[in-house]
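Table S2 (text version). Query chain:
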Amino acid sequence: MSFQLTTEKDVERLRQAALLLEAENKRLVARVVELTRKLMSARGQDAEELQLRLQELERQLAQRTGELFGRSSEKRPRGEQDEGKQAGPAEPARGHGPRTQPTLPLLEEVHTLEEPDKQCPECGGALTEMKGCYEEAEEVDVVERRFVLRRHKRQKYRCGCGGCVETALGPPKLQPGGRYSVDFAVEVAVAKYLDHMPLERQVRTMQREGLAVDSQTLWDQIDALARLLSPAHEALHQALLTREILGGDETRWPLLGSKSQTRWYAWALCAPDAVVYRIQEGRDVEAARNMLKDFRGVLMTDGLSTYESVAGKSAGISLVNCWMHARRKFVECAEAFPQANEALDMIAELYAVEREYKQGPENLARLLELRQQKSRPIIERLHQWACEQRVLPQSALGQAIKYMSNRWTGLTRFLTDPRVPLDNGATERAMRGLAVGRKNHYGSRSRRGTEVAALYYSLMETAKLCGVDPKRYLREAALAALRGEALPLPNQLAQPAEG
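Corresponding structure-token output:
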């Protein structure tokens, strides 16, 4: 029987095949290195350059082997410093006790003895209640979600003169003549864009709970709700563009069935308490302009040339760069180039200074002074280290140093501007929910789907950043829209009511 790797399902046979492939790969790696050594020696190339080229070749082959058979991680080997943390004695393992649940509603249930048990087993006398004395225990329980068919009966009134008939008002409708409530649409939107449940999966769940519905009906509800909430999405975008400093990032977003050869991307602009997304075709300058519009301020990015093009044509945008991305380049080559750990240790010291600041009161003047006193000497040492390295420019370490050097001005802006964070981690964290959703429902089926997805991710992720329940926000914003009122933004719900 022939063996087909692409169709084989037997785990043991696949394991044996992987072992054979790995052994063959190692043999070929050794052969390529040896042949390269002989070729370069025959050409009479410099011994030091020969060694550097062989090291880079071995690293590239080892990296490819790792991609095939290893794990992907940005973490440094165990025992090394990581962003300024010193290795210490291992703490004993601790279990976790019951967690307090301050947000759960408390339902008290009193248990009493049945009549036959209200008798003393010693003397046969009747047992009497000990007022206020209980043995208490708590348990977390679940109240099953229920779908109900709510029939609204609007009472009619008339005058005895026959000239007037009035009808009581009913609840606000998501759509004129629609059969599904605002709360139902909010439930579906939260399940898809916050809990990452595709509509088809929701259909199956609802069928188990007694509701017969199809995915098109669910889409119609969240689409109608999105049209109500569209002004809030636009207002959130405009509000972010007035900030002094933002983080920018982008990630691919599949548009299923699209005939265009251009990839679609989800673009993000992020502040500490808000994030807005736009899903657009491509990562070109036009897409960046649509996202940034008339923004005037400091923009932190990963170094994508598109941002540089936009900033170069706009005097109002100042680009800064992210140390997390610079660090990532050194992590990737640290195994093949141990000297990269020196750069990683110095970057770790920069993060240690930032943590020292967070232990005290928040004050930009204090942060600036701390960075000038402690971070600047670290930056100077790192710059000197980079200049002293003798590596091939095309090697992994050479590329890491080049990445850092090309963005040195943007990477060191934090020394003179205390508003600038050390990295763009907040924006990358804001992209996680969107990335998980992409993995679960594979992107969008239509251009309208991209607009709806961007709207819900923007509003719900911003609500999370503001400490507001996303479901509560969507409901209150939708009801405000149905009443003809201005739609609140999530941070406005987070503020305590006046009066």
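Notes on Table S2: Residues 176-321+452-490 form one domain. Residues 79-92 have pLDDT under 50 and may be disordered.
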